[in-house]
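Minutes, structural biology subgroup

Action item carried over from last meeting: produce the structure token record for UDP-N-acetylglucosamine 1-carboxyvinyltransferase (Lentilactobacillus raoultii). EB confirmed the sequence was re-checked against the source entry. Recorded below for completeness.
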Amino acid sequence: MSKLIVNGGNRLSGEVSIGGAKNSTVALIPAAILADTPVRFDSVPDILDVHNLMLILKSMNVSSTFKGDVLTIDPTNIVEAPLPSKAIKSLRASYYFMGALLGRFQRAVVSFPGGDNIGPRPIDQHIKAFKALGAEVSEVDGTVTIKTGPKGLHGAQIFLDIVSVGATINTILASVKAPGTTVIGNAAKEPEIIDIATFLNNMGANIRGAGTDVIRIEGVPTLQAKNTHTIIPDRIEAGTYLSLAAAIGDGVLITNIIPEHLESFVAKLEEMGCDLTVYEDSIYVGRSQHLKPIRIKVMPYPGFATDLQQPITPLLFKADGRSVIIDTIYPQRIKHISQLNKLGGRIKSKDTDEGIIVVDNSPHLKGAKVDAGEIRAGASLLIAGLMADGVTEISHAENIMRGYGSLVDKLTGLGADVKLSVEDEERV
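Output recorded by EB:
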């Protein structure tokens, strides 16, 4: 277990660069096993999830090296093997191996994935898609077994009952090599899905419509990497630093951003009265004062991202009045509330079924011992700790590290007083 020790109250300034998108990376790594050649990614974030996914690759005799921000994966000698359940259960994105293994071997056996506990996130839409493609799916004691008949997978018409990023990506991975045409209706539109499709298309896949609600895939027999794939910037990391800069910054330039991916978030900051200057690939945040309360409704992309409802919360403490957040995607994403209350935040969950969170002006935050229950909850505690007077000790900081690469270096570079204390170096 690791802890972040935050000595709050310092005003932050300077420049910080955003890394590659976690939510792309954790899907691209499983997607790499579909290739018949080595693959190479750059702008890879140095986060715990990457190292856990590399352990899963190793169990299948897939070699990988990670130096700087470059990750090379060689799946040419891949073998079917039991996947390490400890690594699988440490992150939910391991479920992408279901689609990738199914696409590669026509079968997959994967322990039910773990990851952050932020409420029900069933995989029924994934299973529905696999069955439509010609697979049989069974689940016994937390292990999911997926297999096809002698004819293997085939193209299919699939309509997702709910907009699901995970189900959309898993369906792409399973069908990209399946003979025939696959059409995914009610597909998710996130930038990360476009990133996955771009990677696969550059290897010879035929995927059209990524970024819209209808994706068409013509199956191809082989995928071969020819170029390095650069992962898109992480819009959630960017939004987190935007919130931090608006809350306690004296002028922070956030670089390596695609502003179009952050339009709904930036719109809310501007509605509050934050001082923002948006450039082509960066955003400057000036010192923000006299902020207005706002109402946020979390929606599928291009709406306000559920992964940003917690990081924006500490900024809402500075608004002159009551703000309201409604999370329509994960209404039970409230682990941060009790912990922010320990720091003096005036925040409460009004209706967990409806995902309603009420945030009042909280001008007197004070350091305390808190626990990072999951990635984005931990990010909100970190920002609040930087705003608070005194020392904040955040336990289970490894949860935060799963989503934010080079975190301590980036924060100290802005003038923050943050130290990481590692009690156990075991990765999984």
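Discussion: The domain at 2-19+233-422 is CATH 3.65.10.10 (UDP-n-acetylglucosamine1-carboxyvinyl-transferase; Chain).
Next step: EB to file the record with the rest of the batch.
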